[in-house]
Amino acid sequence: MSKVHRVSSLAEASRFEALGADLIGVSMAVDNHFADGREVGAEVAVNLAQCLTQAQLVLEPPRELTGSDLLILAQKAGAGWIQTPFFAAPDSQTREALADIGIGLIVSRLEADYDMDPTWILGPVSDLGEPLPDLIELEIVPSFTDSWRFLTKESSKQTDELQVEDLESLAQKSPLLISVDLMPSNISGILAAIPSAHGLSFTLGRLATDTSGLHVLAPDSAARLLEAESKR
């Protein structure tokens, strides 16, 4: 599975769907982590969902939207999924209502940094209670721009630091989407190292600061990654 998030136009959506993306995400949320103007309005989200023929729409709603208003927007937009940061996840009643109408929930912004105890990483998700999210987007070693190299070459030398095997263990227990410094040269190795992961997440955009803890890509870079994934 591959998810491309923060798509901002019908042309981008069609391009990524043609390259094999399973989930196409748009954001209606104002987010000061980004400085790129990729947020879209409800009309664009609806039109984008209608242009998709195979992929499903992932909608990141405005942060202030909750309860029945969130459900109405999700249905109006034709979303197959709702995505929110874990700290802004809908309440349990809304999560149940989403599940009842067949809309999945993705929570993002979970970090798996090199100095974290693996048993803590998914704690914020467990704290949400039932029903749990359908997918969990995990940012791998966000402290470093070359996060995968650091994890496999540096952390592997330190037994008290996060290991690739820890990520695979987490993926065996929870439905993870992996976000990391993806490149055509490392994508096969990442998928082979964490075979239980549900897939990869590509977030488009430009960060407002270098300390946001998020991995982002330019659209052309995401396209090259999808092409590389399809050749595996």
Provide the fold topology:
Layout lengths: L1 E4 L4 H9 L4 E5 L14 H10 L4 E5 L6 H11 L3 E5 L6 H9 L3 E9 L5 H4 L1 H4 L8 E6 L6 H8 L9 H10 L2 E4 L7 H7 L5 E5 L15 H12 L2
Parallel strand pairs: 1-2, 1-8, 2-3, 3-4, 4-5, 5-6, 6-7, 7-8
Q: Determine the structural class based on helices, strands and strand pairing.
A: alpha/beta
Mean pLDDT: 92
Distance between the termini: 13 Å
Task: Tell me the CATH topology.
Answer: TIM Barrel
What oligomeric arrangement do these chains adopt? single chain
Annotated CATH homologous superfamily: Aldolase class I
Largest sheet, if any?
Answer: 8 strands, parallel, barrel
- Shape assignment: globular
Helix content: 25-40%
- Give the CATH architecture: Alpha-Beta Barrel
State the order of secondary-structure elements, H for helix, E for strand.
EHEHEHEHEHHEHHEHEH
Q: How many domains? A: 1
Strand content bin: 15-25%
Q: Spans with pLDDT under 50 lasting ≥5 residues?
A: none
The total count of strands amounts to 8
Give an overview in words.
This protein has ten helices and eight strands. With 232 residues, the chain is an alpha/beta fold. The protein has one domain (2-230): TIM Barrel (Alpha-Beta Barrel). An eight-stranded parallel beta barrel has the order 1-2-3-4-5-6-7-8, surrounded by four helices. Helix 1 (10-18) links the parallel strand 1 and strand 2 (23-27). Helix 3 (67-77) runs parallel beside helix 4. The longest helix is centred in the C-terminal third of the chain and has 12 residues, at 219-230. The two termini are 13 Å apart. The mean pLDDT is 92.
